Structures are given as structure tokens and as C-alpha cells.
Amino acid sequence: MPKKKMNPLSIDLGNALLARHQSLCASYAGSPDDITDDLIRKVTTSYKSLLTTIGAPESLAESIGNYLGEVAEWCDAKGLPPVNALAINAQLGMPGTGYFMAAGASEKWDNDVRRCIACKRYPPQISN
Predict the structure, then answer these.
(1) Which residue from 92, 105, 12, 94 is spatially nearest to 50, judged by alpha carbons?
(2) What tens digit of pLDDT does each residue of 9-58 get?
(3) Integer Cα distance of 85 and 8 in angstroms
(4) How does strand 45-46 pair with strand 87-88?
(5) What pTM did the predictor assign?
(6) 3-state secondary structure of 101
(7) Helix (H, G, I), strand (E, B) or coil at 88
(8) What angle do the packed helices 8-24 and 64-78 form, to 10 degrees?
(9) CA atoms of 39 and 28, how far apart (whole Å)
(10) Is 111 left (phi over 0), alpha (psi -120 to 50) or beta?
(11) Theoretical Cys-Cys bridge with 102: which of 13, 67, 72, 118, CB 3.0 to 4.6 Å?
């Protein structure tokens, strides 16, 4: 069965998250256990800010989980921590409930985001 192609918006969101990771997390040299809540606040981004980064309308924030779910599937298929853990609901300070149903997500987002920050294996971008 042929592999499903990712939605172009999912690719754009994933690539923006990978670029954010490269910019803000690549210099981190510690273990996931040593990552502070302050660092997590620094490297995460709201759904609306992420959409603005790629030039998409902020109104898509309500359905962004569908696209970030595809990013999670891509990460899971590559054996990578979910880079979509960097995208959060601004009011909650963490992802919405849909995050926890996505591929590769654990019940503890704070562990996932720490593994994401510490990961050195992400490629520069998603290729479909």
C-alpha cells in the first residue's frame, strides 16, 4: 500500500517546527531530565503564532490538530520524538487534548517536549 502523502499545510507546519527546533534547541547539550520549565516556555509556540509564521490564517488554530497529527505521524514513523510538542494552546500553556491521541505522544506532554528539545536527530525539513 503506498504511503499517504502529507497535506501541504502539515508539511509547512512541520517544517516551521523543525526550523524553530534548530534555532532554539540545537545548542542544548543536556539530557531531557535537565530541561527547565523556563526553557520549555522559551521554545514552545502558540498555535496562532505558528500559523502566522507560515503565513496561514489564525482562524485555522481551531483545526490545527488535524495537521499537527500528520506531523506526529511523520515523527513516529522516523522514530523521533514528536516535534509537534513544541506547538501549544496559549491559554493552556500546553497542547490541547488532541495532542494526546496523536502518534508518538505519551500521557505526559512535559516528558515529550523535553525529549523533543534534547533530540539531535531531526532532519532539516520534512520531505514527502
Answers:
(1) 12
(2) 999 999 999 999 999 999 999 999 999 999 999 999 999 999 999 999 99
(3) 19
(4) parallel
(5) 0.95
(6) helix
(7) strand
(8) 70
(9) 10
(10) alpha
(11) 72
